[in-house]
Amino acid sequence: MEKGTDTLKKGLAEMLKGGVIMDVTNAEQAKIAEKAGAVSVMALERVPADIRADGGVARMADPSKIKEIMESVTIPVMAKVRIGHFVEAQILQAIGVDFIDESEVLTPADDKHHIDKRKFSIPFVCGARDLGEALRRINEGAAMIRTKGEAGTGNIVEAVRHVRTVAEQIRSLKKFQDGMLRKESEKMRVPYRLLIDTLRLGRLPVVNFSAGGVASPADAALMMQLGCDGVFVGSGIFKSEDPKSMASAIVKATTYFDKPEVVAKVSENLGMPMSGLEISKLDIRLQERGW
Amino acid sequence: MRIGVLALQGAFREHSIMLQSLGVQPVLVKTKEDFSGLDGLIIPGGESTTISNIMYSRGIDASILNLHKRGIPIYGTCAGAVILSKDSGSKVKPLGILDISVKRNGYGTQKDSFEAPLQIRGIGDFNGIFIRAPIVTSYENGAEILSEHGNSPVMIRSGNILITTFHPELTEDSGVHSMFLDMVKRNI
Description:
The complex is a heterodimer of chains A (291) and B (188). By secondary structure, chain A is α/β, with parallel strands linked by helices.
């Protein structure tokens, strides 16, 4: 009997496909998310919009907080660690979370190295803005990618930009001759075989969700139509006027992303979504963290 | 042969790829209308809370029960097995199509997920991939136990219903899917 294999790590990500992963900060929110149909919850101390507003160093959540959330739901629980902070990751593995997010939403702990994710038995998800960044994370052992938006803004524009960038880069691989593909892999600092896998599949070799900026059912359906396997919703639910309805509507819109009549119906009477921020007016762009 | 794969959430892509490798073009099933003309249905793994939530809110439960009433074969993997069960031991309200009781996440969380070699009756050696898998805690007398792991059944056939608590769609081995297609062929 084997545990912690690549197949098991990537397999859990496969099971999350077509679903919504919601940021929650306590047991009550976790229960609301589960009841609304979330496939998983991300246990946090503060949602990205509050991290952004509060400033200061953002770290892994208090383990007791994460355990409280784990005890309140039966769906998988994820939690975030700082980029490169492998001890925070060891702590999360020790308390038994299902998935670790090495996240730029928290303040990075290492400006050169990401965590060597192969050393862990539970899967990791990491953010990426382009194909090179995604494949570097996969090469380090990430079992799942989320194309980065700009977290905590309720603004979808960055998520769209990056998912389109990755798709365009994958399409352009077809144009390369073998020698050029090797050069491209050197430029991206990723193994040649990973690029070949991506070319053969016509998509990233792991599950890819959208994250950052999703604030409405239409946003979720947009990211699904652009080819994402599912969506993370951070501040978009619990910073909206009516989190229960918003959560449930985003779940339905993610499943029925290609059925506008369903997305229309679930978009009715949700109250105010989170207010949102203009990207050009931001002091900090979280998406730029990660290397 | 028209095989549907319930595509509300979860690993429906992997099941579809497996069916394609066996020369069957699957139909992704998301709405009541998609059920027309099906000869078989696969309910994939995923999150049973999510799949059941969408299933009940969109009236898909009635379509699956109707399929079953007409004797159409149904195969459920992992979360699919939970949904087909009579008792999920949790908040998830199952369809009660197969007379088994299950314990969701029976082995524990992701750190307890595992791969183990299995023996399947009529297939032989098979790599069992168990991801936050349910454990079958009781089953009806007539059920055919096709494979066991650690004293619990992990693959059961009863009439036109097949379940596995593991994920054959994540392997390269199409044995279990072939067995299901045989059930469908015999039924047409």
